[in-house]
Design goal:
This protein has about 150 residues and is an all-alpha fold. Helices cover about 70% and strands about 0% of the residues. Helix 4 packs antiparallel against helix 5 (about 120-150).
Length: about 150
């Protein structure tokens, strides 16, 4: 009897395991939450450690684009019934020196997360706007990196 009960519990556990992996991620696009985390972290890297004036101009432009991307990603995540209070860890791993390189890496990861297939037709336009703002933020961050490297 005890062996049958244990076998039944094990079978139930194995049967529900695939569902447990996605239990906290309702909707069709769980990667928006990861993109939001990476966008927030990229913004922090740009905002809280200012460089010289030339870099600040590009950083300010990148921050404005990140803010726009965050707002659009929040709307898309809300349409997919995501819990916006959920803050997963950032995806990027710092493998290059400097905060600007880290911000660029985070933006690339955020873009990869946001650029998942979108099943919800209403969210497709939001996704494209998110990607556009991330691309613009990355472009400005890369300009800042070039300015720093040119001034060395």
């Amino acid at each position: 009897m005890k062996a049958k009960l244990t076998a039944a519990a094990a079978a139930l556990f194995l049967a529900t395991l695939p569902f447990a992996a996605h239990a906290d991620l309702p909707g069709h696009h769980p990667a928006y939450l990861h993109a939001l985390t990476d966008l927030r972290d990229a913004r922090w890297n740009l905002e809280h450690r200012p460089g010289d004036l030339a870099v600040t101009i590009h950083e300010t432009a990148a921050i404005a684009e990140i803010d726009r991307a965050i707002e659009e990603a929040k709307r898309a995540a809300a349409e997919d019934a995501k819990n916006l209070a959920d803050r997963p860890h950032e995806d990027a791993h710092l493998n290059r020196p400097g905060r600007l390189h880290h911000a660029a890496e985070l933006l690339r990861k955020a873009r990869g997360d946001a650029d998942q297939e979108e099943d919800n037709p209403q969210s497709r336009e939001l996704k494209h706007r998110v990607l556009h703002h991330i691309d613009e933020a990355l472009h400005e961050t890369e300009k800042a990196i070039r300015d720093v490297e040119r001034n060395r």
